[in-house]
Design goal:
Elements (H helix, E strand, L loop, with lengths): L10 H11 L4 E5 L2 E4 H17 L6 E5 L4 H12 L3 E5 L5 H11 L3 E5 L3 H10 L4 E5 L30 E6 L9 E5 H14 L8 E4 L6 H13 L3 E4 L5 H10 L4 E4 L1 H9 L13 E4 L6 H11 L3 E6 L6 E4 L13 E2 L4 E5 L14 E6 L6 E2 L3 H7 E2 L2 E10 L5 E6 L4 E3 L2 E3 L1 H9 L4 E11 L3 E10 L6 H9 L10 E4 L13 H4 L1
Length: 506
């Protein structure tokens, strides 16, 4: 594997080093709450010892928690207790929680008091042994500070084995049952250093603003672990609000913003954008969905800070590629493979024929950050992991220089009158229209053409007509790719991590 910046055995080792090297540095900020690295590691150690006393080592612990300092402490504490953390979306319903919790079979569950009415009956019905409720009226994990560890016990020993399981991360389940990806400690910590090789942080300087939900792999990689690796400060937004982001960018001297196209679109559309102050912003990261080129250019022009696009999946630890911070960045591309990772494009039908530059096919990936498999799903694991390659289910192409371009999800590709239509391509054309703020293209069954293309749009100019949009598309697309219908909405539905929710549109 190509030489990487420092690789820690686990992220727990990474936190221990940050607390040793910079104990008094501010580690995490959320609202009025602030903790140093010494307080961070003491709080993690206290909860880890509590979990070990419950018998957590080698077991799984579910987290159902919103963005807070407490969820950061809980993530690291479960790891430090040598257990596997299972982060779940706190806005799920009982119907959505039940199969994932049953599949994980956790020893314990840590949950916000705001979701107690949903979680407690479920935990009782599934026979979960231990419940830890967190909240202002129950307990706060950040209440454990250095003074609570007078003996200086520190993190429980031994620290986790790098080859043991660290995380059980469930996929979104948009195509059926959610699948739990098993990720080992070495997998997670190596991926932090792989990302660092292309998008390096500055030791002791970075103040990273997290607006994404921390139960998600993207926020864990680019915010939670990123901040600890560089011994910087993580500033958490409990729930995304444009006004709060503007306030924090200036007041907290933010140097790095981890967002998504939806976040950047919302900030650009705000009346406060023109007067935005970002004196310390050094870089922005974009993930979770493709970023329209026009949006990227507008943000960079206004802030003077580059937007670095990357690509990843839950199953890949999660980072696969990034445009390099100090190197050639290509608009519309998600960059080059992180060190030690191979990306190939193969035919979508069999996955066996490797395609050359400029040809679209399924993206497959091989590297040390790839999951070991899906928990309890041998057939799905065998389909996703073949001959050492992770088959992503995404369609893309590589250029001659190895830069990756995402074209679509394999299952989203539409067959119109015998021709392949990639919704991403149509969406990119729609984004070129000055009035289009959001665009999503789907295929609908059509008895004549096989599939007909429908575009859903949010626009800034209410008088824009379907005829005008149609002329715009026909000037930029072959006739068979042009949408047959245009549906204009006040805004498009989103998932909690900021992706346009095509499942809801369908």
């Amino acid at each position: 594997m190509t030489a990487l910046p420092r690789v820690f055995p686990t992220v727990v080792h990474m936190l221990a080093e940050a607390a040793r090297a910079a104990p008094d540095r501010e580690a995490v900020v959320c609202g009025a709450d602030r903790i140093t690295y010494a307080e961070y590691v003491a709080s993690v150690a206290a909860l880890a010892r509590e979990l070990l006393a419950l018998g957590a080592a080698g077991e799984r612990v579910v987290l159902v928690m919103g963005n807070s300092i407490d969820v950061c402490i809980a993530m690291f504490a479960v790891h430090a207790a040598r257990a596997q953390v299972v982060p779940l979306n706190p806005i799920y319903t009982t119907r959505e929680f039940a199969p994932m919790i049953a599949d994980a079979a956790p020893l314990a569950i840590i949950y916000d008091s705001t979701v107690a009415a949903t979680i407690e009956p479920l935990a009782r019905s599934q026979g979960i042994s231990h419940w830890i409720q967190v909240g202002p009226d129950s307990r706060q994990l950040i209440g454990t500070v250095v003074a609570s560890d007078p003996a200086g016990k520190g993190l429980p020993q031994p620290l986790p084995d790098p080859d043991s399981l660290a995380t059980l991360q469930y996929t979104g389940g948009t195509t059926g049952r959610s699948k739990g990806a098993n990720l080992a400690h070495r997998t997670v910590s190596t991926n932090v250093s792989q990302r660092e090789a292309l998008v390096p942080t500055r030791q002791g300087i970075e103040r990273i603003l997290c607006v994404m939900p921390l139960f998600h792999a993207y926020a864990c990689a680019m915010c939670l672990h990123n901040a600890v690796y560089c011994q910087g400060t993580l500033v958490i937004v409990p729930r995304y609000q444009a006004d709060l982001v503007f306030d924090l960018l200036d007041r907290e001297h933010i140097t790095a913003l981890a967002g998504s196209p939806t976040v950047f679109t919302g900030l650009l559309a705000s009346p406060r954008f023109a007067a935005m102050k970002v004196p310390d912003l050094h870089v922005s990261y974009s993930g979770s969905a493709p970023l329209p080129e026009s949006l990227l250019a507008q943000w960079e022009q206004a802030t003077g800070a580059p937007v670095i696009e990357g690509y990843g999946q839950t199953e890949s630890g999660p980072v696969i590629s990034f445009n390099p911070l100090h190197g050639l960045r290509k608009p519309r591309s998600v960059g080059v493979a992180v060190p030690g990772t191979e990306i190939q494009i193969v035919d979508a039908a069999t996955g066996c024929t490797v395609l050359g530059p400029g040809r679209i096919g399924e993206i497959r990936v091989r590297g040390p950050q790839v999951m070991s498999g899906y928990r309890g799903l041998p057939q799905e694991t065998a389909a996703a992991l073949r001959d050492g390659w992770l088959y992503t289910g995404d369609l893309g192409e590589l250029d001659e220089a190895g830069y990756l371009y995402i074209r679509d999800r394999k299952n989203d590709m539409c067959l119109v009158s015998g021709y392949n239509v990639y919704p991403r391509e149509v969406e990119e054309v729609l984004y070129l229209h000055p009035s289009v703020m959001e665009a999503a293209v789907i295929g609908l069954e059509d008895g004549y053409r096989g599939t007909r293309i429908r575009a859903y749009l949010a626009v800034s100019e209410p008088l824009v007509t379907q005829a005008e949009l149609d002329r715009h598309c026909r000037a930029n697309l072959a006739a068979y790719k042009v949408p047959r219908e245009y549906v204009i909405l006040p805004s498009l539905p989103k998932t909690l991590i900021g992706k346009i929710d095509k499942k809801a549109l369908r």
